[in-house]
Amino acid sequence: MMSVTPWNQISADKSPFVELFLHAGIPTSAIIMNLVVLSSVMSSMNSGVFSTSRMLFGLSKGGQAPQSLGRLSRRSVPANGLTFSCLFIMAGAALQYFVPNTVEAFTLASSLCVILFISIWGLIMVCYIRYRKLRPELHAKSNFKMPGGIFMSYVIIGFLIFALAILSLEADTYQALMISPLWLVILGITYQLLYKPRMKKRLLQNNLSE
């Protein structure tokens, strides 16, 4: 695309793929690209709904999510988790009504996803470092060791912080960066109200049974 269209002439409200095909003399390029984009979005959404509903089911069985999400339908489908996932997808679609600018809404949603992925991988690296320090004997027995070990973990954490710093340079991505801690607050509250009391109750039951 960059070899055909100069970077400073690419419009944010037009698809660069469509513009490329128009330059190639394919007038139906907009329809073709819309079909490609819609099919890929539907595929991604289907994969997301499937994995999220099963993950909620697993968390429920592990006592880390409401028990209602662990119930199966007559066809052995985690219907409550499926419904929960679909409701969040609909909430994401409603973002378009609160942010009328399509480009701004897309940037906000995609930036939030990037920030959450960065947070998840950051937590994984922190947990790995704690694991190496607290249980080195288990790590020594592992057949799948992380290349670079603790040093590489700090390198990855540094890169993730660098990525967050890059997101703070633009106004639209900075807005998503400011909103993202709200999700961590929600997780912290649900942990204190739902998961922690259950763990205490389970530990108490185990101690009484012993």
Automatic annotation (TrEMBL):
Any Pfam family from its record, for instance, is AA_permease
**GO cellular component terms, semicolon-separated:** plasma membrane
Where along the sequence do coiled-coil regions lie?
Answer: none
> Where in the numbering of this chain does the Amino acid permease/ SLC12A domain appear?
1-199
Biological processes per GO annotation: amino acid transport; transmembrane transport
The keyword Lipoprotein belongs to this UniProt entry's keyword annotation: no
Q: How does it sit in the membrane?
A: Multi-pass membrane protein
Gene3D superfamilies reported for this sequence: Amino acid/polyamine transporter I
- What name appears for this protein in its UniProt entry? D-serine/D-alanine/glycine transporter
Localisation per UniProt entry? Cell membrane
Q: Record's InterPro entries?
A: AA-permease/SLC12A_dom
Q: Could you list the residue ranges that cross the membrane?
A: 20-41, 77-99, 105-129, 150-169, 175-194
Record bears the keyword Chloroplast: no
Q: What UniProt keywords apply to this chain's record, in alphabetical order?
A: Amino-acid transport, Cell membrane, Membrane, Transmembrane, Transmembrane helix, Transport
Which superkingdom is the protein from?
Answer: Bacteria
